[in-house]
Each structure stands twice: as structure tokens, then as C-alpha cells.
Design a protein that fits this description.
The chain is an alpha/beta fold. The protein has 7 helices and 18 strands. FE2/S2 (inorganic) cluster (FES) binds near residues 273, 274 and 292.
């Protein structure tokens, strides 16, 4: 984690604020692949992941877009209400959980709402590479579509297909047509609300194998329990390979309980995204609620993201790495 200074802010829409960040110590920022995100700790100490949405080759500054979430625990609200030029924030190094497939010969980017952010970075990169791509952008209206003006004036404006103001059914129809008959080596990338990404995955899967369909893991929702597998939030026991046993009650995570008991455990996002807190499972059945382990890793059942995932069995035996 390091400190950055906000050099510019502007409102992209009524609810989306763009921040430009530079390192406070004047050092260069690390380059990042399109689709990467950073963890941002705001003025209230809450850390949230935000996709980097500037041109990836611009390492003079990082750009993020923050949607004000009315039901959030204050992370996005503080970035809207308490951050202005010269405010300092703490951020982590860029991480890539969502990125362009190097082997793809055609890329179809499909965004809804604030989901445009990582796909905008991808569009910049694909244009720079002279790659074949389309960017489909779904929004309730142009006024609610962040970066609509930028896209219209961009050098790749002819690659952008806008689906603004269309109803749900009309959008489904348009995307069905857009994702039909793609070449066998095409890849599809979706970012937006989980229901939207699920719809895109279903449409794309009619012609492409699962491994060629990608979606942004943290757009599915960022709170514990909003992952792929939401079982009942019961308590359970966690046993360390050193023999100590702790009870994890409803409403607390394994990471919370270990920390309360002085057991060292490294965490970062605490939202099941980054993978920092993953532990090895020796016994018991995890109830995976994270977005960092792959479907294969979840099925294997020998790892668990301690910040969000729970247990289906009464006890989990875990090993601290
Ligand atoms: S701390 Fe990031 S996945 Fe748990």
C-alpha cells in the first residue's frame, strides 16, 4: 500500500465521480494490464476495489471512477463527499483478476453501467494494439452512461455500440444478435451487475466454451455473502493445524475470529477478491463465497478465502500457510 494524491476530480454523471491519482512521493506508478484494479482506502478507512480506467500506457496517473452506492457502508460515499484535489488516499498495487486473453483474435467487451470502467481500459489497449474488438455499452440513458462523451470522441468510436435507454428485453435481443455467430477464437468480457454478467455468459456460451467468456469478479457485489454460493449463515468451528479451536459465529468471518484471537493472518480487500487471506483446508467442507478462487479450486475444496467464505461442515481444519 502507498499514498497517492488526488490531482483532479470531476462528475461523469450524477452518481459517478472520476478521480485522478498520482504518487505523493513523486515516484512513477507501476504499469498495469487493462482490466486491473486497485484497492483504495478512503477517508473513512474503508477499502474498496476500483478498476483502473485510464489508458494503461499512461503511467503518470491512475484514473478510477467511483459510483455512489447509497446502500454501501460508506466507502463510495466518502470518496464522493470527502475527496477533492489534494486529498491523500492509500492504494495498493494494481492487481489483475480480469484481463484480456492474449490468444484471442477477436474481443467482445460488454459493459453495463459502471461496469464500463475495466472495459474502457481494455478498449484503449486493444485500439493501441490494433486488435479486432467491439465494445457494447448498456446504460439506462446517455446521461447515466459514464464516459459516453469520451467514447464518442475516442479514436475507437466506430467500435462502440451503444445500447442506451433500451428496455431490458430490447437489450437482451440486441446482445443476442451481437454475440451470435462469433468466430471460434473470439473471447467475450462482461462487466456490470451480476444478473447482467450472467445473461452475457449464457448468451456467449451458446457459441463459445466457458474459458473464452470472462467477467469481472468483484462487480457481483462486494459484501460477504454475495458470492457464488450463499448458504445459510450459520456458525461453525475453525480448527488450526496447531490444535486451537475457535467458534465463528454468524456475522463474523474466519478472518475476524482469527484476528480477535491474535492469530496472524494477512488480509487486504476483505471481500473475497484479492486472494490474500486464502488458507489451506485440511478437513471439512468450505462454503465458498469469494470471487478469487476458480471454479476448479472451489470444487477441489482444499482452499478457503477466510475473509468471506464459511463452512458447510460443523468444523473446518485449516492450515496457516
Ligand atoms: S482478503 Fe482479499 S480475498 Fe480475503
Amino acid at each position: 500500500m502507498f499514498t497517492v494524491t488526488v490531482t483532479e476530480t470531476h462528475a461523469e454523471t450524477d452518481t459517478i465521480k472520476v478521480l485522478r491519482l498520482v504518487r505523493s512521493d513523486g515516484a512513477a506508478l507501476a504499469p498495469y494490464p487493462a482490466g486491473a484494479h486497485i484497492d483504495v482506502t478512503g477517508p473513512t478507512g474503508i477499502t474498496r476495489p476500483y478498476s483502473l480506467c485510464g489508458p494503461p500506457e499512461d503511467t503518470g496517473a491512475y484514473t478510477i471512477a467511483v459510483k455512489r452506492e447509497e446502500n454501501s457502508r460508506g466507502g463510495s460515499q466518502a470518496l464522493h463527499d470527502k475527496v477533492e484535489p489534494s486529498t491523500e488516499l492509500t492504494i495498493g498495487a494494481p492487481r489483475r483478476l480480469f484481463g484480456l486473453a492474449p490468444q484471442a483474435r477477436e474481443h467482445h467487451l460488454v459493459a453495463a453501467g459502471i461496469g464500463i470502467t475495466p472495459l474502457l481500459a481494455m478498449a484503449y489497449e486493444l485500439h493501441a494494439r490494433k486488435a479486432e474488438f467491439r465494445l457494447h455499452y448498456v446504460a439506462r440513458s446517455r446521461a447515466e452512461a459514464a464516459f459516453a462523451g469520451l467514447l464518442e470522441k475516442s479514436a475507437f468510436a466506430d467500435r462502440v455500440v451503444r445500447h442506451f435507454g433500451a428496455g431490458r428485453q430490447a437489450v437482451a435481443h440486441e446482445l443476442t444478435g451481437a454475440l451470435a455467430g462469433l468466430p471460434a477464437d473470439a473471447h467475450v468480457y462482461a462487466c456490470g451487475p451480476e444478473s447482467f454478467m450472467a445473461q452475457v455468459r449464457v448468451l456467449a456460451a451458446r457459441g463459445l466454451p466457458e474459458e473464452q467468456i470472462h467477467s469481472e469478479p468483484f462487480r457481483a457485489g462486494t459484501s460477504a455473502g454475495d458470492g457464488a454460493d450463499n448458504g445459510a449463515d450459520d456458525g461453525f468451528e475453525v480448527e488450526l493445524d496447531t490444535g486451537e479451536v475457535y467458534t465463528v459465529p454468524p456475522g463474523k468471518s474466519i478472518a475476524d475470529v482469527l484476528e480477535e484471537n491474535g492469530v496472524p493472518l494477512e488480509t487486504s480487500c476483505r471481500e473475497g477478491i484479492c486472494g490474500t487471506c486464502v488458507l489451506r483446508v485440511v478437513e471439512g467442507e468450505p462454503d465458498h463465497r469469494d470471487h478469487c478462487l476458480s471454479a476448479k479450486e472451489k470444487a477441489a475444496g482444499d482452499q478457503i478465502a477466510a475473509c468471506v467464505s464459511r463452512a458447510r461442515s460443523p468444523r473446518l481444519v485449516v492450515e496457516l500457510w
